[in-house]
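Input chain follows. Return structure tokens only.
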Amino acid sequence: MKIGIEVSTVLNFGTRMGAGRYINNLIKNLLKSKNNDEFIFTGYHASNEHMHIFEDFLKNNPQKNIKASFYPVSQKQLEKLGRKKFPAIEIRGFKSDILHCPDYIIPPTFNKNIVLTIHDMSFFRFPEFNFEWFVRKYQKMVSQNAKKAKMIIADSQSTKRDIIEYLGTEPSKIRVVYLASEDIFRILDEDDIDIKVMQKYGINCNFILSVGTIEPRKNFKTLIMAFDLLKKKYKFKNLKLVIAGKTGWKSEETFDFYNSSKNKADIIFTGEISDYDLVQLYNMASLFVYPSIFEGFGFPVLEAMSCGLPVIASETSSIPEVLQHPDLLFKPFDEKEICLKMDEILSNDNLSAYIRKQCLTNSGKFSWSKTAAETFDVYRHCIINL
């Protein structure tokens, strides 16, 4: 089988973003297959900054038949060409049995066997959490591309339900394929714990960790309110709240809550953080809290679970599918419930140890090899049902 994969997201933004991580890990594990398949990568790129990622695929898989059909053009230029539906990627020598478009976008193509991955439908369900131009663009593009695709992969049952609700897609056309966390997210040996990471961010005591871009959808303001309540009601003196992630759009309200908090000195924003530091914090935190209002999958929840950290999280969207433990869920806008659950775990070592074990066990149900195998099944389904 000749498998074509559209990789513009990685070519332009690398592998730090969620979609980039997905594409990178999917390809790594597809290439581990013993099948005699040919892989052809296509995509546009404005620079060569991330080209090394694909050079590594070639270098690390000399036994595999891998080809590339990249084209140096900006996204703006590509969109102009796309509106004209020319030039089709086949004209540049790209020919495959199926074409997997793993991040919403389908390039101009003659291929009818298109597999489209839709990570989430936030631009339909919560348009207020995105820029107006982004909402208009993605609502139109995803609606059109969902019709073009022969099969759609959704990251969760929650996303599948949203696709059916907002696009009217036949359920049989959609396959749910769960993602996974990377191997670096694991329980570290004692010798690998780097206390300097805590010192780097000014953490000098036990701490609650949360991870995500500082934006309204992540709902950190409610977490700050819950933390304030925890400090007031349960008298946790030597405890900090650490929020790890870069500053995103409409972050002002979150920082207003932070600045008005009586516990401001105990709340730490790390800013954008390296994977090394993040793994260290997952391993040293006392509790992980994820108050997000909406997710397509929820990488941080699974990353924390994989590091053996007790996790509580919102009962919304895909998060219950990842956490797989109803007692660890809370209503995202109920700071009293969040506070109570934090206190229950932080005050009870036996309960904390039990939840750690449950989270670690559940994390083992997700793997990139499983993601790749189930994605292969979707490819085969496309070919068989011509």
